[in-house]
Structure formats: C-alpha cells, structure tokens
Amino acid sequence: MMLLFMLVSIFRAAFSNEWANKKDGKFILNKPNISPQVLKIILRFIYCAKIDLTELQGPEILNLLIAVDELNVQTLIQCIREYLIKHQCDFLQQNAIEIFETAYQNEAFTDIWNYCFDKICEKPAVLLDKFINLKEPLLELLLKRDDLLLDEVVVWDNLIKWSFARHPSIQQNVKKWNKEEITIMRRTLHKFNPLIRFYHITSEDFILKVDPFKALLPEDIIDNLLAFHMNSNKELNIDLHPPRMPKYDSNIINGSYFAILSSWIEKKNHFYYNERNIPYNFNLLYRASRDGDTHTDFHIKCDKKGATMVVIKIKDSEQIVGGYNPLDWNSSNLWVSAKDSFLFSFTEKNNLQSAKVGYSNNNKYSIGFFSDHGVVFGTDLYFYEGNWHSYRDDTHSYPKIGIPGKIFEVDDFEIFQVVKK
C-alpha cells in the first residue's frame, strides 16, 4: 500500500507539469536536474525501503533532497533534512550562501534554511566574498537580523559594493556622478537605508565611509547623523536600533574570547557558546593603564563586586593569560578554596584554537585575599608590588597551562565583573 501511495505521488508530480511530453503514445519525462544516480537511489528506496545516506557526500545529499521534494516523496524529505543538519554540518557551513539561496521560499528546506541563516549570522566571514551577488530579497532579510555579527560600517561598505555591482556602468568616483546616476543609486539603496544602524558607526568611519555617499541618503538622516556625531549627548527624535554586535569594553580581547570564557565558566568545551548566545555580562571594573597598577587601586575598584574575570596581555608577546574568580575579592588576608576558579592562556592572540584552561584542584590555596597583593590565584598567578608572578614554588593550585614562569611584564590587564544575564 505504501509503495502504491509513493508511486501515485511521484506520477502525479511528474505528469501535472511541464516535465512530461507525449511522443508516439509514450510519456517521456525530462528532468535533467535529477541525475540517474539520484533517481536510482529514490527508486531503490521506493521498492526496497532502504537508503544509506552515509555513503553520500554533502552535495549528493542536497541534490537528493531537491529531487525528492520535486518528486513529492514526502517520507524521505524530513529524513534527509535531519541527516544533513546532524551529520553534514561542515558541508552546510562551508556552502551556507549557496544553500541559503537554494532553500529560499521552499518549505521542504525550512530547517536547513534556518540553520544556514543562523550560521551566516554567527560566522559572516563566509558572506563577505559573496555579498555583492546576493539576491535583493535575501539581502533584505539578512540586514533585518539583529544577530548578524558584523560591524555596522562593514555592512554599509558591502552594501555600497553590492549597489555598484547592480550598476557596473556607474563609476565609483561619487563626485563625478550626474543627476541620473545619483537617482539610480538612490533607488537601489532606498529600501535598505532604514536597515542600516548608522548610529553605531564611529565618527571616524562616518566621515570616511558614509559622508562621501550622503547624496544617496535622505537629508533628515544626514542632518541627524551630523548632529549626533557633533554632540552625542544631544537628544534626537530617532528610532535607535541596538548594535548587531555586542560591545565589550576591552582593549585586549573581543567577543569571541568572552564566548570561550563563558563556556569555561560553565565547564563546557571551548566553543560551546558563541558571540550570539553569551549568557553573561562582562562589566569592566578595572584597567591598569587607566586606573593605576597598584594593589590599592585594585582593591578600590574590585573588592566586593562578585565573580570576576582577569585578562592580561603579556608584553612583547601575542599571549593572553588570566583567571576566573567566582568569589568576592577582599582584604581579609586569607586563603580559600574555590573549585570553580580557573586559569587560562591563549598562546596566540589571533588563534582561538591555542586556548588552554586549567581548573582549580580545590586545595585551600585556590584564591588569596590579601591587602598588600592584587589578584592572587595561589602561587600560580598573582600580582605583588607592581609585578606579575607565576609558579613561584612547588605548591600548585592549578595545572600548568603555559603561563610564563617567575616574573613577567605585561602591556596591560583588565578585570571584569561577571554577571549572569
């Protein structure tokens, strides 16, 4: 009965559209986008109820999904969708843009569409090389997203490139445009202007990247932007959207690091969280270059503030180290155990894969609270008399993770209050 039902569904799809031509009393189906190999897989499933997706590569599975959707083999559609998302993540991420466009407005691809959309927003580097080729409806959907992890000036810059790609005959020297060219470009950008969060573009980038194209923007937007950048405290009657990228007040690390640190706080793997779903706020309490680098300055700024994250940039190096204290800093002159505290190291600043973490062994020297010291993580990492020290004796509260031994110099260090959202 199931076999008959599937065959009826396929023939109904095949003979109800332009695929079928009748010649010499026979119906000839013309489907050049369905290869013989894919058709063989589908027919084998229909007659034998067997399919082994593990034998297929990502592109073959995607082509199979397109075919079973067109042939209306409903029992296979959900199975293939789930397999792609669960077992072909790398293929989907590496080809997110192409799949994104293929899946557009196709109900059979909804899960895959959402998956690729999320991945593009999470890791938009895959987008930038292909931005100028995006279809207008897809670009509009993308720019409406709050979680597209790109600086707004990068979004604007690529939108301008996209507009030029639509009209290759228009020269890129704005000053030489005639009225017709200005009108064409204004019409091209018209629907996208409200989607650009101009107020999250810095004054410097506004002058360099936005102002040269002011002829393409409504006068009220330009007037408000100029007023905003001349006096950012002035109240303006504007609809101010939140920034796409969370902003972190750090001169040492960015959101990718905070995502990893958040994962470690919860004892997850390095990349459990990403910039879109960080569950903590990291509020800057102290920056040595700004607030002074003495133990007194530290205690004034950081005592009794709850859990904190210490981030240190080592001098003449790409290494970043630090630690997490889940307790209040104070000046009680006591040692305490803290099983959730940890030290960390990024050997190379621009290589997140170089990350290492070492959790406390929960001995009584995990954290030190001393009035004449700053940060103290056992004898493994501590600040004393204006210097950073590590591994000063054989009593260790944390595993060794590559923090320089003895005394080391730093460019700067920062301490953040960690608050659950």
From TrEMBL:
Organism of this sequence: Rhizophagus irregularis (strain DAOM 181602 / DAOM 197198 / MUCL 43194) (Arbuscular mycorrhizal fungus)
Pfam families documented for this protein: BTB, TLD
Protein name listed in UniProt: Kelch-like protein 17
Entry keyword set: Signal
Residue ranges of domain TLDc in the record: 251-419
Coiled-coil segments on the chain, per record: none
Domain called BTB: residue spans: 1-55
InterPro entries: BTB/POZ_dom, SKP1/BTB/POZ_sf, TLDc_dom
Range of residues in the leader sequence: 1-16
